[in-house]
Amino acid sequence: MTEMTYQSDLLRLLTTRGYVHQMTDAAALDALAAKEVVPGYIGFDPTAPSLHVGSLVQIMLLRRLQQAGHKPIVLMGGGTGKIGDPSFKEESRQMLTLDRLSENVAAIRRIFERFLTFGDGPTDAVMLDNAEWLDALEYIPFLREVGQHFSVNRMLSFDSVKLRLDREQSLSFLEFNYMILQAYDFRELSKRQACRLQMGGSDQWGNIVNGIELTRRMDGVEVFGVTTPLITTADGGKMGKTMAGAVWLHEDQLPHFDYWQFWRNTDDRDVGRFLRLFTDLPLDEIARLEALPGAEINEAKKILATEATAMCRGRAAAEEAADTARRTFEEGASGAALPTHIVTGGSIGIVDALIALDFAKSRGEARRLIAGGGARVGGEKIADEAFVIPVSGDVRLSAGKKHHGILRG
Fold it and tell me: 182 labelled as ligand-binding?
């Protein structure tokens, strides 16, 4: 079945914008989505107070579900988060306290409220927490009712588990249970919310299939799965991983300007794909932008940066970041939205300044940056790690081509 033959707005939207890697029974899902509202969910483990850009394709997937007239369910893993998804991880996750999990869930909800419309209507988004049902499970009844439907032989064959075992890395029994609990989530959401669709990254395929089979075996209900491709950059890197660390969606973890700048620095080859995935611009406009010749592609990158930032941080923050970039890089002025460090005493050493603006995590890293020619003060390269920066007004400090900040006297 090609995308041209889909009846439903949902599958046409997902395929034309590049979200689909695998689907279970595409014809049946298409027919269902064409005739009724389909509640669909994605799970997120609250392991930090913010999600990062690596989760953005999943958030956008829920947004597309709602745009196509269906109901998004955001499932927070307050229960499974106590274990941590072992899929393709090299080691066990750090265990979080219950208070920290609760704080993280509250912080993450604020992100989703920017991408989705929450409420009580048939296509309004809802946020649930799987601790509601997982915390109440009794071990022996759960083993008898649910455990009988899982083959250990098959569980060991999943790539996510095999990878750990092939590397002779420890996989605890606690983590091994994760896929059973995720499958149980799908079955529980099917009962509680009439949820018919689970979506996730390509690494979740085995977990999603488990949930589909468990729901069919225990309740006789047909449910479906869709996975997205692994989003890598044109140079083969993982989406959202930078030298400076994760690109956080929450402004408490990453300033608006740095978020805007991350998108502005997109590789030329990724511009069209990222515009389709991470903005609401029409496809014909995207086709025009990605076809811009030579240096004109930079205009498309600025549009990508502004549109992606507006969706995550608000239109005002996006416009301010774009204006700051224009004034900083095109006019050489200091922009108000750049990360800023207040300097007392009239001066600061360059090593301390790089650390203060979070351009380096340690003195050693700062010295390596200086030795490599990556530190500039007011546009001038500084090669001396003992250099002291006089600060009476605003002084612009740059680390490489992509990171800029203000030292303020």
Answer: yes
